[in-house]
Design goal:
Layout (H helix, E strand, L loop, with lengths): L1 H8 L2 H19 L8 H12 L6 E7 L4 E14 H10 L20 H6 L10 E5 L11 H12 L4 H26 L4 H8 L2 H7 L5 H20 L8 H17 L21 H29 L11 H10 L3 H20 L13 H17 L9 H25 L20 H6 L13 H24 L3
Antiparallel strand pairs: 1-2, 2-3
Helix pairs in contact: 2-7, 2-8, 2-18, 3-6, 6-7, 7-8, 7-10, 9-10, 10-11, 11-12, 15-18
Length: about 475
């Protein structure tokens, strides 16, 4: 029995495969339709791509479908079948941040029977409406599997609610494949990746329609690949094929979400002595950086151009916010520090457990306990021959801080400050792609693991954590 248990723990990627598919399938179907972070907007985008539309539509009207205005406004919109929009409208009552007057109120619940009743809405590709919404600025690349599958589903006139569930499954399978590969290829810290990727929020995101699962999966895979190049004894020299894979991963991450560009600095974690020459090393990094930066500049310039003239629900446009930062260089750092100081604990809690409209929380002791277990596990277990040096840990620190800074800045430019004059829009899930880097800061060879099977205990804790998360989700949305 003990031997069989050891064999199981020798294949952590298989453990992840079982956990991810088990919990992912549960989360896919118990989460009400379109009740996740920006899920309707992502679905609309995918549907439009499947129609061959690479851009959004513009509509000028006195209303956005919810609010009335004194003068006509120009909105971004998509042309979507009525049956899909009808389901989205019906589940809006679950959102505590939505009503006709934008007043926060106590959200309602639904029954499982009501969810099943939504299967009655059939897809009528000819009966369409204009759905006004803020179109996500993502390219076709971020949705390739979803677009292919949705195109096939449309050919069979699949009911919209089934389309949505199958789109969620696309996300789940893609996330599972990326993390499974990451755990499999890394020669070290396999359980660190497993325990981090199998936390409630990453699994929840993997079972919804978004791009977060792609960013997290690619970021974990890039980190794992860097560790492979560092610690895999079979790789004596870093070849061109290794450099191409690194470039491909970081470029895909930049396409999915440009704020994670600082992950390119993981290149400097790679041992200098493994390169053919220092010229090869510098040239490879410069070329990779140039490609990524040029793409991001073109992407941002294109988006600024196409969104010109579109109505903003905020008092200041992005251009005005950038101008304000340039003319008041000291005010922004003050807002940034204040936001992190006041909301930092909340960001940390919601990095591991958050769902829907972020209106329900898990007991902070449960969440904090899991993060502490992850740190302890990284410190005492799953060690490699040579721990990361101080200089390399400083690089990891710089990457983490840069990602948080750029993401907060992007939110500051996009959204207004909240009622406390803090940066609005930043979510704990944005930290997830760099969570493995944070844990690697605790990597060392000074502490020896005790005989107690701490890995099994942490794995058990993660399962209990997930049970609490699922119960909380069901209790939040459903009338039992």
């Amino acid at each position: 029995m003990i031997k069989k248990l050891k064999n199981v723990f020798n294949k952590p990627e298989r453990i992840f495969l079982v956990l991810c598919l088990f919990w992912g399938l549960i989360l896919t179907f118990i989460n009400p339709p379109f009740m996740s972070f920006d899920e309707p907007e992502h679905f609309y985008k995918i549907y439009s791509f499947s129609e061959g539309t690479l851009n959004y539509k513009k509509i000028t009207s006195y209303t956005d479908g919810t609010l009335m205005f004194n003068e006509p406004k120009t909105f971004s919109a998509q042309i979507i079948p009525v049956s899909i929009v009808r389901i989205v409208v019906e589940v809006r009552k679950l959102n505590p941040y939505f009503d006709e007057n934008r007043i926060i109120y106590k959200p309602s619940k639904i029954t499982f029977k009501e969810t099943l009743a939504q299967t009655q809405y059939k897809l009528d590709k000819n009966l369409k409406t204009i759905a006004v919404h803020m179109v996500p600025s993502y390219t076709v690349v971020s949705y390739v599997p979803h677009i292919i599958v949705l195109t096939i589903l449309k050919a069979f006139n699949t009911a919209p609610v089934f389309m949505m569930f199958i789109m969620r499954l696309c996300s789940l399978f893609l996330y599972t494949a990326l993390i499974y590969t990451a755990i499999k290829i890394t020669p070290v810290k396999k359980f660190m990746f497993l325990l981090t990727a199998a936390a409630p929020l990453p699994l929840y995101l993997s079972a919804t329609i978004n791009t977060d699962h792609l960013v997290i999966g690619l970021s974990f895979l890039l980190t794992a690949y860097v560790l492979k190049l560092c610690y895999d004894d079979s790789i004596e020299k870093i070849q061109n094929k290794h450099l191409f894979i690194f470039f491909l991963l970081i470029f895909l991450i930049c396409i999915a979400k440009f704020t994670y560009l600082p992950l390119i600095l993981l290149f400097f974690i790679l041992p200098k002595e493994k390169f053919q020459t220092q010229k090869t090393r510098i040239t490879a990094f410069v070329l990779t950086a140039v490609f990524c930066v040029v793409y991001i500049i073109l992407f941002l310039a294109y988006n600024i151009h196409i969104f010109s003239g579109i109505f903003s629900y905020y008092n200041k446009s992005s251009a005005e916010m950038i101008s304000y930062i340039l003319h008041n260089p000291l005010s922004y750092p003050a807002v940034l520090i204040k936001t992190i100081f006041i909301n930092g604990f909340q960001y940390t809690q919601r990095m591991l457990a958050d769902f829907g409209c972020s209106d329900t929380s898990i007991n902070p002791f449960i969440v904090s306990g899991y993060l502490i277990l992850l740190i302890i596990h990284t410190m005492f277990y799953d060690k490699q021959k040579n721990a990361l040096t101080l200089n390399k840990k400083l690089i990891l620190c710089f990457i983490i801080i840069s990602v948080i800074f750029i993401t907060l800045s992007a939110n500051y430019i996009t959204f207004e400050l909240d009622t406390q004059n803090l940066i609005a829009g930043f979510k704990g899930r944005y930290i997830l792609p760099v969570l493995p880097l944070f844990l690697l800061l605790f990597d060392n060879n000074n502490f020896k693991p005790c005989r107690f099977n701490f890995t099994a205990f942490t794995l058990f804790y993660s399962i209990v954590f997930m049970i609490v998360f699922v119960i909380t989700l069901v209790n939040r949305y459903y009338i039992i």
